[in-house]
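Page 42, continued from yesterday. The earlier attempt failed because a stray header line got pasted into the input along with the sequence. Redoing it now with the clean sequence only.
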Amino acid sequence: MPSNFTHLHLLTSYSLSCSTINIDKLIKQAKKNKITTLAITDHLNVFAAIKFYQKCIDNKIKPIIGCQVPVKYDQLDRVTPNIIILCKDIAGYKNLIKLLSEIHVKKEKNKTASADIEQLRKYHNGLILLTGGRFGILGCNLLSEDNSSKINFVKLLKEIFQDRLYVQINRGNNESEKLYNNKILIIAEQLSLPIVATNHVLFLEKEDFDAHEVRVCINKKVKIDDRGNQKEFTDEQYFKTEKELKTLFVDIPDAIENISEIVKKCNIHINTVGYHLPLFNTPDNSDVDKYFDIIVQKGLETILEGKDDLDINLYKDRLKYEISVIKEMGFVSYFLIVHEFIDWSKKNSIPVGPGRGSGAGSLVAFALNITSIDPIKYNLLFERFLNIERISMPDFDIDFCMINRQRIIEHITSLYGESKVSQIITYGTLSARAVIRDVGRVLGMGYTYVDRIAKLIPFSVGITIDDALKQNKELKKEYQNNEEIKNLIDTSKKLEGLQRNVGKHAAGIVVAPGDIDNFIPLYRVEESDEIVTQYDKDDIEKLGLVKFDILGLRTLSIIDRAIKTIKEKHGDIENHIDVQLSDKKVFNLLQQKLTTGVFQLESSGMKRYMGRLKPDCFDDIVAIVALYRPGPLGTGMVDDFINNKHGKKINYEHAMLEPILSETYGLILYQEQVMEISRSLANYTLGEADLLRRAMGKKKKNEMELHRKKFIDGAKIKGIDGMIAGSIFSKMEKFAGYGFNKSHSVAYASISYQTAYLKTYYTSEFLSAALSSDMDNTDKVISLVDACNEMSIKILQPNINTSGFNFISIDESTTLYGLGAIKGVGSNAVKHITDERDHGGDFKNIFDFCERVSLNIVNIGTIDALIYSGAFDVFEESRLAMKKILHNAMLYGQQKQNSRNTGQQELFENKSESFSITYDDANSKLKIEDTTDNRLKSLSHEKKVIGFYLSGHPMKEYQDEINSMSIKSIASYFNELYSMDTDDDFSEHGTVSGVITNIRSQRMGQDRYINILTIDDSTHRLEIILFSDIYEKYRNLIKENEILFFSGVIAMDDYNGDLSMKATKVIDMESARVQYSKEIELFILPEHINDNILEKIVSILEPHKNGKCPLTIKCLSNQHIVPLNLDNQWLINPSSNLIKGLSDLLGKENIIVKYQ
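This time it went through. Structure tokens are written below.
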């Protein structure tokens, strides 16, 4: 007879602060120990309840769901860390989720979430309560204070819970616990309460204790060395066997017997069958099904109106079929709910995406205006979305304008009631890379050192550390040869996959037919103070509740902003989603790789493929969106696709494949193609084909063998040879692992096309909108500014009298920089400035500005940023001069404001500076000389506040000279990369020059590091990698804002597809002149000739003799050039000082340095 033993106080990894127990491993351990019942009691949550329940049922283990809850035990609101609550039955489960919801919803900020006696009284039915052990209601401070209030509290609990209250006792080898146990046994006897044995389990094996300690440190954000000799946990808190626990409590047999008694009492069944859809109220209170029929038919009529080329019967038959399936599966209300809030969004001018995911395969969705994609036109399959042979809740993922996403959530909440709507939790996990970084930090290892190890794990969704050790030889070598790294990886493996944090799902909301907490417990996220469900989206679906993904897509905001600008400037324009998707100019833009800002097509890698693919039809865009993913990229499918498109002979194994695969040039790319092949060649229904597609995607071997036989048998009936059928099935099986949802690809490709269309025909408006939407991302702004340059759009620097918060499209070739994109200039300051400008007119100078704006809202930091950005250049004073007089200007402004607002607090507290000042006094500023150094200083400041060089570039001073040295621009290397006709790696030895804009270090090992510089030569940016020996050799040269020359190998970065250089040599401008110069020519004009001109030239040359560069002096006389031949003692070093001295004497145009 199976034992009723289990651990009644066990925390899983969903107790984020202190447990390493993975549920799957817990079940495996239970089966190994022949334990047939499991209980979980996570801290203040039941995050894992549904997953735990279902996995226990699947493994024929009895589940007990419980929770560890802090409790207030007296009128002073003092809180004890925990009591243990277990669900006796379904009534108890419902009361527990009500209790937890109330605790979290009512929790006050900065206070501990806890239950009080009234809540326990209110929700006690169906619950069993344990007193919590050493840290429970009778444990905390039991040995050091008067416990009368706690004992009185337990007496109240006994009145409420009666025979469902147990005194909990642990024996975990903790000294204070031993003292506690002696006293608690006496109290239990005095109160006539039964004792129950527990172990407060936090890890599975005794040897997991060290990993557990690391887990605790990760949560506390401390290093392991900072923990010291903690006494909070012991190595005895592992998943003991029944024998081990009985041995511990051999002297108290009742404590063990009561475990069995509790297990017998706990019998819970959670219903995971059926659906709980919210009631949809029709506008006229008519029958829901009839209303559904009417609006769907009207939608179809709109689709077909004026389109005589469409097969009307095909559309009608498809619609009739879809409606019948939707009604049979009971999802009419679901479609109407989605239709309502999308219809509301469009009526309220909130942009909605064309579709996302498999929902775009539904004609009903198209007719209801849920999607904007015609599924028949693109051969999209309804069964991929909703399959009557695979009962599951439909799931429309819908993109909305990022800015207005919250308005839709508020509308849904208002419509159905706040108590019935909630946003959904998401759990962050310790993925392979993340866990190595976290563990390394806790162990005190250097960030860059650990980061290098983490980056050796291939960038692949779901990859494990074990997978990475098999795939990456360098990682395996480090693991085998370096004890420190072995410990890092072994510890990381024990924590890999555990839950690390919780947050709000980016898109999901759930709508229930009644109060949410009748179905799901609620939780307050500590970091954001937001209320979310305790169950994630998968468990919500398992319980039959409906969730909606309200996704924010920045690109929709960009499109909306661009179209509004276009309409303001050009009047009404066509609906760009409805264009024919065949414009040659648009495809020419893509073929030229001008795709920055184009949705899904703007990465470096994608630009390369655009150049090679040369897309000329919408199907090509659909395909490349599906192909540009790690799976297909790693198999060579992209190369096959491109080669087949451009003429490589395509061999179809059977003629019936050609109409299905011709759009993808013979490749199985889409999941829908797998389904179509199964239907056409093997007599599958589309419902069966969807099950096959699903089995292939999940690599279910047993199912696959059954399907292989079914496919071959079906193909034979169609007259297809069994060997050929088997070969086709094998190819389907292979490609299905990388197959993409065509419905999603078509929907997203339509957004790609639309953004490309806008960029082609309304370039300035589109790029201005994109810049405004991404102004908080400097890297993105720089990329978009590059795109403006590519498209001959001039970016005007910010102007205090004309700029707004956002970028403004001035005309078809000009965009004005937005004040909101300047670092240190906030939205409140910009609004205040523009309001004052609208009210009082343009600002005349910096004094007028400081007089008119509030210097509390527009403070000195903001004005600094405005000066350095060039926004005050309209005042026609140098930036450095304005900075020098800013203090006086602000004093002047304050004085003027104070004269209008007497009694206002002084901006400057130092009374000695609060003197009466006149405009003339303030305006007695220093004139700043326009020198190269000052220009470079201004540009350096500009880069700090804008993120890049806008009004000029440090390289401009030297560009002609560098060009003469035949140094290739950085952009030329990128152009070579994008122009390659193959997928081969790019690698070329060369020299580049540029100004250093960023320097960062990265540790590569205990004694190894690299420095990574970013340089900018005004055409593009490039990362320069310097290994430690190279860096040390040239470190005196390497400073931010320095112009240097780097030689080495320029190659493509496998991670991001961009170029970088591993440099082996670094020289400065002086050395470059010496290295590359071959001759200097001086021209002496007649007006230069006087008694001592040669002496002056000699005096300038003298300090620069003994160089390697020949010097030629040419005198111009009577239209003749007379050369003066100099001997080898006049070989010189062409330094900056030399060039400047000669230029000052003879004029810059008469000094010519010739380079090799």
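Notes: The CA atoms of residues 158 and 192 lie 10 Å apart.
Reminder to self: strip header lines before submitting.
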